[in-house]
Design brief:
This protein is about 55% helix and about 15% strand. By secondary structure, the chain is α+β, with helices and mostly antiparallel strands.
């Protein structure tokens, strides 16, 4: 079901993006092909105005906002720009994009051929008498399918982020799965499991006390309580894998799975190590002050989650979901 929801959200996003892009094209929101006028203060001497030259481009605020049909900038546009003359005497204008560039032009640059600069064609150039400045009339590179390109780029960026996270977890998973294996071979996991049997038996009555899932759950809960963040992930995955072996109806979460997920999501914690590290890195004068509130908040969330799972699993509707058909 979750897969269908994700597919639906993606399709809705694409539909809305295409709709917005078509609207922009009809209204010509980015003024493709239209001529904008500005003044260029030339840095070269009049005798050197050959080939390529550069200077400061000035487009008054009123001209800029009227051209794009809205309050696109709060100040006059003053940017470094260069004029390049091609072999056929056609001139091109190049405007590097920086923090000083109006946000509207920065968004346009993201959809252009080069995200680092705006490019366009000079259609008119009129120098003053001493050739130290020129009135420039130019058109910028056409901008189309901005929203669709943004969605595509976001999908690629997050796909790369997912790969980065996955590779980052490999080392952690290898380490903690190894630690768990060593603890199991040394008998430490068995001792810990037996010591906590009264608790686990009440929380997970459907799971045998000596089942491997119990040890994995204990390791996961212990890692979460110490605030080890990603270090608890491999133990949680291992616990769910072992619990699924006891599942009489694959595809439907068992009571033990739901209870374990409630504990895991509640985030019962004693030492929020990750949060303390972030606060310390941000320069907090007392990064450990959140320990008390973290324990109380996570404790309340965990208790509510466990109670809710225990109450709901007794209702006929939820119990029927776990019945296996023998037809």
């Amino acid at each position: 079901m979750l897969n269908y929801i994700w597919i639906g959200l993606i399709l809705v996003g694409l539909f809305v993006a295409v709709g917005n892009d078509v609207t922009d094209e009809v209204r010509n929101t980015y003024r493709n092909g239209e001529v904008l006028e500005g003044t260029l203060q030339i840095q070269k001497s009049p005798s050197e105005l050959r080939g390529s030259w550069e200077g400061e481009l000035l487009v008054p605020k009123g001209t800029f906002n009227d051209f794009y049909g809205g309050a696109r900038t709060d100040a006059d546009v003053r940017l470094h720009a260069s004029i390049a003359e091609g072999m056929d005497s056609a001139r091109a204008i190049l405007i590097p994009v920086s923090d000083a560039t109006p946000r509207w032009w920065r968004e346009m640059a993201k959809s252009g051929a080069s995200k680092e600069r705006l490019t366009g064609s000079v259609v008119g150039l009129q120098f003053n008498e001493d050739r130290t400045a020129a009135r420039v009339r130019f058109t910028l590179e056409p901008v189309r399918f901005v929203k669709l390109k943004a969605i595509t780029q976001a999908a690629l960026d997050y796909a790369g982020t997912a790969v980065t996270i996955a590779f980052g977890l490999i080392g952690i998973m290898a380490l903690w799965l190894g630690v768990m294996k060593v603890a199991e071979e040394a008998g430490l996991l068995l001792v810990l499991t037996r010591a906590l049997t009264p608790v686990t038996r009440r929380l997970f009555p459907d799971v045998p006390p000596d089942h491997p899932a119990v040890g994995a759950m204990i390791m996961n809960i212990a890692a979460n309580m110490l605030g080890l963040s990603n270090a608890a992930t491999p133990m949680g995955l291992k616990a769910m894998e072992e619990l699924n072996k006891l599942n009489p109806k694959v595809g439907t979460a068992t009571n033990a799975m739901v209870t374990f997920l409630a504990i895991n999501t509640g985030g019962l914690i004693l030492i929020p190590a990750t949060a303390i590290a972030v606060r310390a890195a941000a320069g907090s004068s007392n990064p450990g002050i959140i320990i008390g509130t973290s324990i109380v908040g996570a404790g309340c969330a965990t208790i509510v989650g466990v109670v809710a799972s225990k109450v709901l699993q007794r209702l006929p509707g939820y119990r029927k979901a776990m019945e296996v058909s023998h037809e």
